[in-house]
Structures are given as C-alpha cells and as structure tokens.
From TrEMBL:
This is ABC transporter ATP-binding protein. It comes from Luteimicrobium album. InterPro entries: AAA+_ATPase, ABC_transporter-like_ATP-bd, ABC_transporter-like_CS, ABC_Transporter_VariousFunc, P-loop_NTPase. The keyword ATP-binding applies. The lineage of its organism: Bacteria, Bacillati, Actinomycetota, Actinomycetes, Micrococcales. The keyword ATP-binding applies. GO terms for molecular function: ATP binding. Pfam families: ABC_tran.
Length: 252
C-alpha cells in the first residue's frame, strides 16, 4: 500500500494555554509509519485528533478514501482502529466474550461477530486462547489482545500508541512481526520511543519536535541524515538510531 490515507494540513492544537502542534503537516501513507518524539511531543494528541476526539484550532485533518474530516464516517473505508497507550480489558472475561462486547459497542451485528472474533484472534496469534480469561494472558499476549480489539471491525487505518513499551525482547519481536503483517493490507500508524521498532520493520519514520514534523523518511535515511552532521554519540549505550534521534532533537 502506498496511497495517502490520512493528512494533517497546517494543524494547530493546544490544551488551554499549552500549544502542542503548530502548523503541523503530516501525510500518512499505506504500510507502517512510526511517530517518534520526546515525552510530551504530542504523539497521543496527534492520535486523538486523527480519531476526531479533539478538534484542531486551525488547519484540517482529512481521511482519504471518502475525504471525510476526522471523526466523520462516510463509508466503511473511513473506519479507524485504536490501541490506546493505557489499554485495559476486564480480567474476568474470556477473550472471545471480551471481543464480542467490543463488537457490540461498535454496533457490529451478531452475524458479523461470528466470523470477526475468531478472525481477529487468529490474526494476533491468540486463536487457541479464545476461551481463556483475560487475566491469564502474559504482557505480550495482552498487548496483542489490544491489537485484536483495534482490528475487529476491519478498519483501513490502525493507530497503535506505544504498543511495544514494557515488552521483553521476544514480546517486541512478536509485536513487530504482527505490525508488519497488518501493514500488508492496512495502514498502521504507531507511536514509539523504541526507534528500533522502525529500524526492525523497515517502516517510515516521522519525528516530531516543537509541534512540527522535523523528519519523514525511512529509518536508514534518518540515521544517514544525522550522521552527515556531527556524529551522534553512541558511548552512552545508545543504538545508532537513538544517537541519531538525540542529535535531531538537539540533545547531543
Ligand atoms: N488532557 C490534557 N490537558 C492538558 N494538557 C495535556 C493533556 N493531554 C496532554 N497534555 C499536554 O500536551 C502535551 C503533549 O502530550 P501528549 O500526551 O500528546 O504527548 P506524547 O508525545 O504522547 O507524550 P508521551 O511520549 O509521554 O506519551 C504535553 O505537554 C502534555 O502535558
């Protein structure tokens, strides 16, 4: 997939007196895009704006497909899936029951859910855990359940807010594999502090600083760009991508 699916045009947004985004332009294409930036840079705010949960002060946010503004649904291709940073699910429910409940909240028909629930569970590698309670899942499995609820209604764009945070190396590898797999037929926009997520999946990297996009391209270009300035320091145990990131943020 390569067509643009979401576009922020000259968006400005702030909470009360704080300005978070200023003249913010972002084009999200198909495939996998990673949004990186320091704590408080505005990644979650960008997601909330894309979902239509917040309204920009200035500028516009457009879903391609029907061209509907954020938060307005004109056709099925405008559907968005969302895994929030603070994902929770009732521990006593079975995975199957929980996803049926999510489908009910999204106004999906019982008929559609018969196939949608097993399909979503299989897609995230939890097909054999359908009858188990949420409480029995490991941290990595729980995160994958979060992805399952985000894709249950087969959205054309999935927003994942820091899905790999706190996972062990195997959990991160599983989740990156899952994101790569999803990105074959769905646009995926993922925020992360782990720059290696972008490096390992060959995704597009978008770096946010002071409310604007300061870089958009492949992880390898990001590293090369930073390396053409003064060399990033890797002597603090940083990976080359992390050193490049700090340099771009003016911290090295
Ligand atoms: N509901 C809110 N009310 C007021 N200020 C907020 C609110 N939510 C976020 N902010 C502020 O907006 C800025 C951007 O926050 P946001 O959560 O979008 O950043 P982020 O890049 O997702 O951060 P992190 O990497 O720490 O999750 C921060 O300064 C934050 O304190």
């Amino acid at each position: 997939m390569s067509d643009s699916v979401l576009e922020f045009r000259g968006v400005s947004f702030g909470y009360r007196r704080t300005t978070v985004l200023e003249g913010f332009d972002l084009t999200v294409g198909g495939g996998l895009t990673f949004l990186v930036g320091e704590n408080g840079a505005g990644k979650t705010t960008t997601f909330r704006l894309a979902l239509g949960a917040l309204r920009p002060r200035r500028g516009s946010i457009v879903r391609h497909g029907s061209g509907a503004p954020a938060g307005r649904l004109r056709q099925k291709s405008d559907l968005i899936g969302y895994l929030p940073q603070s994902f929770t699910a009732p521990p006593h429910m079975s995975l199957h029951r929980y996803l049926e409940y999510i489908g009910w909240l999204r106004l999906m028909s019982k008929h559609d859910l018969v196939s949608a629930v097993p399909r979503a569970l299989a897609r995230v590698g939890l097909g054999d855990r359908a009858a188990d309670r949420v409480a029995t899942l490991s941290g990595g499995m729980f995160r994958r359940l979060g992805v399952a609820q985000a894709i249950l209604h087969e959205p054309s764009l999935v927003l994942l807010d820091e899905p790999t945070v706190g996972l062990d190396p195997q959990g991160r590898v599983d989740l990156r594999r899952l994101m790569r797999d999803l990105a074959e037929d769905t646009a995926v926009l993922c925020s992360t502090h782990l720059l290696e997520d972008a490096g390992a999946t060959n995704g597009t990297l978008v770096a946010l600083k002071d409310g604007r996009v300061v870089f958009q391209g492949h992880a390898t270009e990001f590293q090369t760009l930073a390396a053409t300035g003064k060399p990033g320091s890797t002597d603090e145990g940083l990976t080359p991508l992390e050193a490049a990131f700090l340099q771009l943020m003016g911290k090295s």
